[in-house]
C-alpha cells in the first residue's frame, strides 16, 4: 500500500541549488515511487557551526510503496551517489535527505525516527512543509502552522542566488 512521505532536503556545498535539483530527480526515479510535489527552495543560516556557507533547503512529497527502511536506504544511496561526506555534526554537506513524515506513522528504531525528532524547531523544514501541505498535522507535535507560530529561533533568510564563493 502506498504511503505519502515528506522528505527534507538540504545542501550548502558545490552549488546547493543544483544539489537539490539532482536529489529531486533521483527521488523521482526511485522504484515504486512518485514525486508529487516540491516546495520552492529556502535559504537558511546554518543551525550548527557558523563558519560555513548558508544552506538551501526544500521539502518534497513522495508517494511510495517502499517500506520506511527501504526508503531510508534509498535516500542514503542518493546521498552517497552525490558524494555526501559528513564532516562534522550540523556541519557543511553536499546533500542531506531526511524522512520527515511517513504517512501518519510514528517510527522509533535505532536507525530511523519518524516524525523527524527535530523538525518542530526548524523553520527551514516547517515553512516549506506548510507551503506544500498547509494544515498538515505532525503526529505527536501538532499542526505545522502551530509549530511555526511557536518557533523561538529563525534560520530562514531571504533567498538570493548563492554566489561562487559558497560553492567550495
Detailed description of the structure:
By secondary structure, the protein is an alpha+beta fold. The chain has a single domain, classed as Alpha-Beta Plaits (2-Layer Sandwich). The protein is built from four helices and ten strands. The chain has helices spanning 16-28, 68-81, 123-132, 144-149; strands at residues 3-11, 33-38, 42-44, 55-64, 96-102, 107-108, 113-114, 137-138, 142-143, 156-157. Strands 1, 2, 3, 4, 5 and 10 form a six-stranded antiparallel β-sheet that branches. Strands 6-7 form a two-stranded antiparallel sheet. The radius of gyration is 15 Å and the shape is globular. Residues 162-168 have low confidence and may be disordered.
Short description, anyone?
The protein is an alpha+beta fold.
Give short descriptive properties of this protein.
168 residues, alpha+beta, Alpha-Beta Plaits, six-stranded antiparallel beta sheet, two-stranded antiparallel ribbon, 4 helices, 26% helix, 27% strand, globular, disordered C terminus
**Major sheet characteristics:** 6 strands, antiparallel
**Uncertain spans:** 162-168
- N-to-C order of helices and strands: EHEEEHEEEHEEHE
CATH topology: Alpha-Beta Plaits
Distance between the termini: 42 Å
CATH class call: Alpha Beta
Shape: globular
Which structural class fits the helix and strand makeup? Answer: alpha+beta
What fraction of residues sit in β-strands? 25-35%
Count of domain modules: 1
Overall CATH architecture: 2-Layer Sandwich
Count of DSSP strands: 10
- Bin the helical content: 25-40%
Q: Count of DSSP helices?
A: 4
Radius of gyration: 15 Å
Mean pLDDT: 90
CATH H-tier superfamily: 7,8-Dihydro-6-hydroxymethylpterin-pyrophosphokinase HPPK
Amino acid at each position: 500500500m502506498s504511503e505519502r512521505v515528506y522528505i527534507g532536503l538540504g545542501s550548502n556545498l558545490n552549488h546547493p541549488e543544483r544539489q537539490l535539483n539532482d536529489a529531486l530527480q533521483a527521488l523521482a526515479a526511485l522504484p515504486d515511487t512518485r514525486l508529487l510535489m516540491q516546495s520552492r527552495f529556502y535559504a537558511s543560516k546554518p543551525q550548527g557551526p557558523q563558519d560555513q556557507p548558508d544552506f538551501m533547503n526544500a521539502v518534497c512529497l513522495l508517494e511510495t510503496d517502499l517500506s520506511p527502511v527501504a526508503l531510508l536506504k534509498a535516500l542514503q544511496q542518493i546521498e552517497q551517489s552525490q558524494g555526501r561526506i559528513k564532516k562534522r555534526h550540523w556541519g557543511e554537506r553536499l546533500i542531506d535527505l531526511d524522512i520527515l513524515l511517513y504517512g501518519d506513522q510514528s517510527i522509533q528504531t535505532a536507525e530511523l525516527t519518524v516524525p523527524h525528532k527535530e523538525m518542530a524547531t526548524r523553520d527551514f523544514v516547517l515553512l516549506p512543509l506548510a507551503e506544500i501541505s498547509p494544515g498538515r498535522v505532525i503526529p505527536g507535535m501538532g499542526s505545522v502552522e502551530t509549530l511555526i507560530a511557536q518557533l523561538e529561533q529563525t534560520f530562514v533568510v531571504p533567498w538570493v542566488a548563492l554566489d561562487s564563493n559558497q560553492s567550495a
